[in-house]
Amino acid sequence: MIPYLPGFGAAYAIQAVAVASPGPGVALLLGIALSQGRASAFAASVGIALGAACLALATTQGLGLLMEQVAWLSTIIRVAGIFYLLWLAFKAFRRAAQPPHVTITRNIQGKGLWRAFTMGFLMQITNPKAIVFWLAIASVGATIGAPAPVVATFVAGAFLLSLVGHGIYAVLLSSSPFRLAYDRARRWIEAAIGGFLALVAFRLATERS
Fold this sequence. Notes:
Blueprint: H1 5-20, H2 24-36, H3 38-60, H4 63-69, H5 71-96, H6 110-125, H7 128-138, H8 148-173, H9 176-206
């Protein structure tokens, strides 16, 4: 295990920077935290973390090589990510168009939590940027030639790091000051979230592979 620690450290440092940087995942958490509450936001964080773990495992098992050899796979992932981001943007715009005064509740029902978890998971695994990011981490070589227990440890660490980072976002964004601010400026906040997600989808659709 010790020989792999430097690679682990480099990979986790890259991941920590990515987790701390606001992106589509944080925008999703913002919308869920302010409109549904902390429990749903944390459920979405777990979904994002599980998605990160799946991508980490996939990259250690040769996802990058597979995508190079099967060109249409990359295209399918990109298109799926674009449409999912557009769907999330549409939902945000629809919330912005609702009456301005709404009661913000904490959704603790199992169905609501499962939906939030699924949204977070799909956000992560259909995001081409996240896939490219994990391919970049794979280039660090943290698990090259590593036995299964080492790979499992690396994936578990990626899950925990993502969960902690996005969990902190979920707690902060669902705090009372944020909820009060949301109640006063919900239209603008939801419109900004929708605009950001739509912009990310547009950039994915227009940039070169």
